[in-house]
Amino acid sequence: MYKVRQDKNGWTHIDWELIGVAPAMLDWHWCNMDKDYNLWHPLQHKDFCFEVPPTPEKVLGAIHSAPQTRADGSFKAPRLRYDDVATMDKKCSDLIVYDHVCLVSCIGEGLPGEKDDDPVQSYRIHQWQGTDKGVKGITTAISFRGETVEEEKRIGLLWAQHAKEEIGYFQDFLASLYTLWSAVKDPKFNPYHSFKVEKTASGFRYAEMPK
User: Fold this and answer.
1) Is the residue at 211 inside a domain?
2) Residue 207 maps to a domain
3) Is position 90 within any domain?
4) What are the tens digits of pLDDT across the range 77-122?
5) Structural domain of residue 197, as residue ranges?
6) Per DSSP, what are the bridge partners of residue 65?
7) At what angle do helices 23-31 and 149-181 cross, to 10 degrees?
8) What is the CATH number of the domain that holds 16?
9) What is the pTM assigned to this prediction?
């Protein structure tokens, strides 16, 4: 179940709800996308690799390449980094209303010469919390590339077509895959970090991440 909306900034938001999926399963997903990327969108996700993988000690700063097609037939291979929610600009942190957040920054498009510390081109803010039946959340796309509001809205709607389908696929596989992988206790092969956040005077911070 989902609803797509756009705001005065041109930012695109998807409100969603999943039945039978727990918050910890989504925490696990972001740490283990190498295990489920193709299941997350079987039709449009292609290859995947962690260039800087999550470890038992750390998930922030992990970088992955996420090749994918879109509804219009275009192909993208963005380089994406998990960033600290405490570093978000306040106008972005004001969007946080749920108690788990994965802040994904696009730092490149897989082109030669890109660096891991290149300026952030866009955000994907994934936030969620538990319900009696599963989880509810919001996924948001924000560009820092300087498009007009109208152009950002157009690009956002194209992204949302792909992203809302990803959200729907979670319900098909995530609970089962999480249960299967729970048998692997070695965090080297099955890392896990909680993306639970708490409010601070200046925004948010991760409540359970290793310091």
Assistant:
1) no
2) no
3) yes
4) 889 999 999 999 888 999 999 999 999 999 998 777 888 888 889 9
5) 2-201
6) 49, 79
7) 100
8) 3.30.530.20
9) 0.94
